[in-house]
Amino acid sequence: MHLHDLETPALILDRTKVDRNIARLRDRLAGLGVSLRPHVKTNKSADVARRIGEPGTPITVSTLKEAEYFLQHGWTDILYAVGIAANKFAHVQRLMQQGAQMTVILDNVASAQALAAFCKDQNLTLPVLIEIDCDGHRSGLVPTAPELLDVAAQLGRAKQDGGAWVAGVLTHAGASYDCDSTQAIVAMAEQERAGAVLAAQRLRDAGYAAPVVSVGSSPTAHFAKALDGVTEVRAGVFVFFDLVMNGIEVCTMDDIAVSVLCTVIGHQKEKGWIITDGGWMALSRDRGTSRQKTDQGYGVVCDVDGQPLQDLIVAQANQEHGVLAHRSGDPARTPMLPVGTLLRILPNHACATAAQHPAYQVVAGGQEVEATWPRFSGW
Amino acid sequence: MHLHDLETPALILDRTKVDRNIARLRDRLAGLGVSLRPHVKTNKSADVARRIGEPGTPITVSTLKEAEYFLQHGWTDILYAVGIAANKFAHVQRLMQQGAQMTVILDNVASAQALAAFCKDQNLTLPVLIEIDCDGHRSGLVPTAPELLDVAAQLGRAKQDGGAWVAGVLTHAGASYDCDSTQAIVAMAEQERAGAVLAAQRLRDAGYAAPVVSVGSSPTAHFAKALDGVTEVRAGVFVFFDLVMNGIEVCTMDDIAVSVLCTVIGHQKEKGWIITDGGWMALSRDRGTSRQKTDQGYGVVCDVDGQPLQDLIVAQANQEHGVLAHRSGDPARTPMLPVGTLLRILPNHACATAAQHPAYQVVAGGQEVEATWPRFSGW
Questions:
Q1: Helix B89-97, helix B109-122: angle, nearest 10
Q2: Together in a domain, A230 and A259
Q3: Which helix (H) or strand (E) is B199 found in, with range?
Q4: Looking at the structure, do residues B363 and B331 belong to the same domain, yes or no?
Q5: Terminal Cα distance for chain A, rounded
Q6: What residues in A contact B282, CB-CB < 8 Å?
Q7: Do A178 and A327 share a domain, yes or no?
Q8: Measured distance CA(A361)–CA(A363) in Å, rounded
Q9: Tens of pLDDT along chain A (379 residues)?
């Protein structure tokens, strides 16, 4: 099958770029002596995940549906990296009964108390990472927070204590997505590392085992100078990359492995608009590049081979319509590509765009579709 | 089952509000003597669509997957309201062979030529609506465009000619979503009506049958004073409503039938943040209210009964995390709802939010879940 045989819109994945992106980070982390626990929230596909590591290797998930799916496909060492809510305890237990080695996270006394009570009641031994806030970006306790020991006090000191026990700390330098220079990302990576290591040390000093120090974001994973004290790195979007990562120079535009195939269905010539059948339902509503140096609208327009067309972006999007225009807004500068032209749109945010599609149409550099890899959504 | 028995996030649909919203528009259009061809792109669910009209009643779709699904559930009179691309011709033909009465749209000579050639080649009789641009919002020809007759000239004059034939015109007043007063919506509705009727008249004067004059958007459908010359109205979001519709006063906040159930999983007290497990994956990245008088962030926070909590909004969203804060940004004004609190978030755009979920959890005003209605996504 050929890209021209597909109905549009469709999600295209270039396998050669996926493999190159994976090799790059794997080599980098091997040099730093730290293992990778890839975040599968971006790909939600066993076919993609197998290219990062065989079933059995550790993974990170953002939903228990991901945990369930990857467990069915042979991955057993699963970190659920969103603060656990009590309405998910029973689901975690079921996954463990089915063979998963689950790890969960939390950042407050109330959650720790509830989980400890559940584990005691159900006679469940469950490793818990305490979430650390290394950058003021989202959840977690700051590394020096007195509450760190209050949270730990609700949990067991080591695995042999049984129940919910303090397996270590986890942090995510989400603010690295907003860095405006490589230097800033390097500094953020060190801040992420140092914060997590400090928090783990405080726990160990207080008598907790805390063997795990888990850090990660795709930007910091690619620019950390040292990861001393860190036991694992999490990253997900690096497998596909996207325009947000390109905007902070973590990848080149040529590294972006995922794109949305769409077709020109009309024009508004006097406005310099090309209308396609790739709207926000296919691209997602993500506008992550709007706060970067170069605003890419809803995505960068490429030809069917994936080569960017000079300064043409998805300027607007309706549910099932994309409006392409020259970046300048000058109508005369839009090349009026004929009706029927196939195009590929590079997305702002690979996680958001891929989530809109039921499958990847896989190519290897060319226009030949060599496989269809299913993916899932929801909870 | 009760809302407290669900894992979060989950999509909640209040059936009583759905029925009330449907009755309101049905009564209104009956008064204007025009029939409804509901757009099922918002609900993508036979269970919801049956509340608007029994299988067999006319529907509008935005994807051929919707056409396929609703045909399987008994709906046969299907208008695919996105300019047809040649890579979808064969799919339309398959749907017709399976019993669908399909209507398609287009707005340019190239598409009309390609479709006419396909229909001639395949001996297919297919009604075509020519898309009219009534408001400069997206696709279509302006009502007075000379090209209107050039497009029609590629097609048959009436059904008995066979092939692709001119069944009429279609327009969508998408600009009505940006109106800032009811008066402006009333004016836009008349502009939409008048433009479509004028274009249809030009076609009839030139000898084309053009029996259909199809108009519609949820705002104009609710405020049109007259629909003389119009044969059908399309609307979709009116079944659920959302904050964008509330922002332009098409509905009250109490009319919004769809919400995302989520759970408080932590806090950042000094920032006045409440962290939940309802992020942009559950809410969508839609920020449609950001250009309205009141920016609702990623949604309005309600208690588990669906009552808005004073001035609490989803101020930020990560993939699986929502950050709730007081609208003012003053940390002291955020009520620190305890970990474990169940909340319901009203969405900016019902189409975008519902698309993120595999099913509706249906309530009837209360907290009792009386049914689970599946829905689908993709193409």
A1: 40
A2: no
A3: helix B182-205
A4: yes
A5: 32
A6: 379
A7: no
A8: 7
A9: 999 999 999 999 999 999 999 999 999 999 999 999 999 999 999 999 999 999 999 999 999 999 999 999 999 999 999 999 999 999 999 999 999 999 999 999 999 999 999 999 999 999 999 999 999 999 999 999 999 999 999 999 999 999 999 999 999 999 999 998 999 999 999 999 999 999 999 999 999 999 999 999 999 999 999 999 999 999 999 999 999 999 999 999 999 999 999 999 999 999 999 999 999 999 999 999 999 999 999 999 999 999 999 899 999 999 999 999 999 999 999 999 999 999 999 999 999 999 999 999 999 999 999 999 999 999 9
For residue B200, count other CB atoms closer than 10 A to its CB. 27
Report the alpha-carbon distance of residue A285 to residue A298 in Å, rounded: 7
Are A141 and A131 a contacting pair, CB within 8 Å?
yes
pLDDT band at B131 (very low <50, low <70, confident <90, very high): very high
* Residue A34 C-alpha, separation from nearest chain B C-alpha, in angstroms: 26
Among A240, A263, A284, give the residue marking a domain's end: A240
Chain B interface test: which of A5, A133, A285 (most B C-beta within 10 Å): A285
Q: List Cα–Cα distances, A149 to A158, A205, A209, B271, in angstroms.
A: 14, 10, 13, 21
Shortest alpha-carbon distance between residue A87 and chain B (Å)? 5
Say whether both A130 and A165 belong to one domain: yes
Domain count, chain B: 2
Q: Which of A7, A41, A85 sits opposite B379 (nearest CB)?
A: A7
CA distance B232 to A158: 68
Q: Which tens digits make up the pLDDT trace of A264-297?
A: 999 999 999 999 999 999 999 999 999 999 999 9
A305 and A168 within one domain: no
* Residues B202, B264 within the same domain: no
In Å, how far is A359's CA from the nearest CA of chain B? Answer: 9
Count of H-run helices and E-run strands, chain A: 11, 17
Quick one: tokens of A104? 């969960």
At B50 the three-state DSSP class reads helix
Q: Dihedral of CA A98/A103/A106/A111: which sign? A: positive
Q: How many CB pairs under 8 A join A and B?
A: 164
Half-sphere exposure of residue B201, counting CA atoms within 13 Å on the CB side? 11
Same domain, B314 and B227: no
Contacts of residues B221-224 at CB distance under 8 Å and 24 or more positions apart, as own/partner, are B221/B25, B221/B28, B221/B29, B221/B189, B222/B24, B222/B25, B222/B28, B222/B185, B222/B250, B223/B182, B223/B185, B223/B186, B223/B189, B223/B250, B224/B32, B224/B186, B224/B189, B224/B190, B224/B192, B224/B193
> A378 and B355: CB-CB below 8 Å?
no
Backbone angles phi, psi at A130, to 5 degrees: -85, 130
- A378 and B356 within 8 Å at the Cβ level: the answer is yes
Q: What residues make up the domain containing A87?
A: 15-240
**Is residue B379 one of the residues assigned to a domain?**
no
> How far is the C-alpha of A372 from the C-alpha of B2, rounded, in Å?
39
Rg of chain B in Å (alpha carbons): 22
Domain stops at, among A215, A240, A265:
A240
Residues in A touching B320 (Cβ below 8 Å)? 41, 62-63, 82
Contact: A7, B174; criterion CB under 8 Å: no
Min Cα separation B252/chain A (Å): 24
Q: pLDDT of A82-134, one tens digit each?
A: 999 999 999 999 999 999 999 999 999 999 999 999 999 999 999 999 999 99
Instruction: Return the DSSP state at B207.
Output: T
Quick check: A138 and B280 CB within 8 A? no
ipTM of the complex as predicted: 0.97
